[in-house]
Structures are given as C-alpha cells and as structure tokens.
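Researcher: Good morning. I'm working through a list of sequences from a screen, and I'd like to move beyond sequence-only analysis. For each chain I'm collecting a predicted structure so we can compare shapes side by side. This is the next one on the list. No need for commentary yet; just the structure.
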Amino acid sequence: MIRSTKSLRSFAAIASIAALTLSACGSSDDDNKTDGGTTGAAAALCGKNIAFLGALTGDAGALGQNMVNGIKLALKENDAKNPDCKIGLKPFDSQGSPDVAPGLATQIINDDTIVGLVGPGFSGESLATGKTFYDAGLPSISPSATNVTITQQGWTTWHRVIGNDDAQGKADAKYLTETVGAKKVFVVDDGQDYSKGLAGTVKTALGDALVDSDQIAVKQTDMSAVVTKVKASGADAIFYGGYYTEAGLLAKALRQGGFTGTFMSGDGSEDAQFVKIAGAQAAEGAVLSAPAGPAPSGFEATGLYATQAYDATNIFLAAINGGAADGKAINDFIGSYVGDGVSGPVAFDDKGDIKETKIYAYFVKGGKLDVENPSPIE
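Model: Good morning. Structure tokens for this chain:
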C-alpha cells in the first residue's frame, strides 16, 4: 500500500523527535547527516535484535499479528534510513498463555543478540514474565497489556504505550450509563488477568447500574447458562471482559436467545474476528472500546495495536541509533522519552504507564467493524 501525504506527515512527527537523539552507525562526527538519517558517533548495538513476545497463533493470534506488522514497518523504515545499522526482529509465539510465556522469556534473556522487547502482548503473560525481564535488566514496552497491577510490581524495565484498564473500564461504564442510557448492566468475564481487571473496573464504576455478573471459561463454547442469567436479570446492556473468540460466541448466543440490549466489550474484542465469529447479524450494533484511536490514513500496518507496536519499536530504535550501548542505557532513554507517535503522545510516568490516553468506542455497522470512525468516549 502506498502511504498518503497525511500518513507521511504522521511518520515525520516521530522522525523529528528521534532526530534529536539519533547518531550515525559507522560514520564519523564529520559525516553528520541532515536528511533524516543517523547522526553522530557509531551506535554500539547495530545488527542486534528486538524481540516480540505474544500470541501469534491461537484464539487471539490476530492481535499479535497486528503488533508484529507494526514492528516490521518500523524496522523496514529504519533499515531504509540507516542501511549501516539494521536491527532485526525475533518473534516468540506465546499464544497469549501465561503458562507458555515464562519458558519463552528465559529464551529471550539468554539470547545475547536481543537488546529489547516489544511486548508482552497480554496481561497474564506480562505478570508471569515481568520479574524475569526485570532481573535480567531487559527493557520492554508493551503495546497492549492493560492490567493495572502490572506497573505496581516495581519492575522498572516494564513500560506500556497504551492506557490501563482503570481508564478504559471507567470510560466504558460511563458510556453504557450516560450515552446508551442503560439502567441494568450485566457484566461477564473469562477469568484471565486482563479480563478480570477490566470487568472489575466496569463493575465498580457502574455502581447501582450493575444488575449482576458471571464468569465463563476460556474456550467455552456453550453459553446457554450465562444467557439464561442475563435474561433473568432484566439487563438492558451487557459488558464482556475478554477476547474476541468468546466475545463473538457470547454475542451470538445472546441474540439467538432473544437478548435485544446493547452488547459492549473492550479492546480484547476489538477485531474483525469478533464479527466473523458472532456472525454479522448477531454482531450488528456491538460497541467495542479500545484505548487506541484509528491509524493514520494510509498507514501500512493495520489492526488494533499496530500503531502502538510501531511507536514502541521506534522508541527502541531512537535509543539504539542515539548510541545506547546496553539495556540500562536503553531503559533510561525510554523512561525520559517524550514524543508524538502515530498512536498519540508518548511519555511515561515513574511506574512505566503512559501519561496520556484516550478511550474510543468502535461500532459494528452493516456487518463490519468500522475501524476508521470511532467515537472518543473519554
């Protein structure tokens, strides 16, 4: 896909920030460039790799593929600008499982060619591996893990370029009660760290509008019991905390069971696969929130979290091209980074959370998830 002029301006925003710190690979101080290439002394980490840890296959694999596409785009652009300082990618497929991720984390920290991690992709695997990466001193930036407690562990090498579940959950509850006008909201989650965290915030924020709640299991296909509870509660809206596979199955079962209220879910469901699994008719009118706005026009990497992964990768590249020689130097650079990414303004607080975030509502219209025209809800 050819990028539009608008998209190129978006990319230039990152380049202008990074240019303040970039330094040439293999060039002398007299060879400083002014064309957007590297400047200054040779970077110490040229030829090294950035790792990705997250789901590339399995029920949530589409989300991880979006992230990898964003990483690859940033690396491709870096290679074109800095042909003497190419950085590679090593992807590790956890399938989003907190049981699989620790073994992969051990592989990552024992690989001397890896100098940083874009990921982990999900909250459960972040909580299962954060200490491993912290103890090894490997800096990481997650494009998508939103559980609030991750940044409360004291892992100073862990960062995220996306808003956490508190911000999203409060906005979702407000949207349901004020915009939708729901009086009785039923909340369901799938028991995973991300899901419980988001659903828990929604339940608290709903206050008296919470009519009841329930929990399903990952890979559960029979939703009849929860459909019965939802209908018996008299709910006029349902919020689901979890990922698109079970969200789609639940939405389908609810519509087949006669539920006519609003179906809303969070960023784990904000993917075209939700519509495919639920079916166009059952998915119609669903509201899927995300702490992520639409990609710039013509942006080559499509899908939720692609822009966040692109921005995370560019922060690593700015550190490397600026002469960072080890993990500590990269981590210090990340902690003080301030820039305008394609996903929005990027700066981190002392815990690794992004300082500024906006929540958006995406809608299923005409049998498709409209990813270009979300509504800001917070």
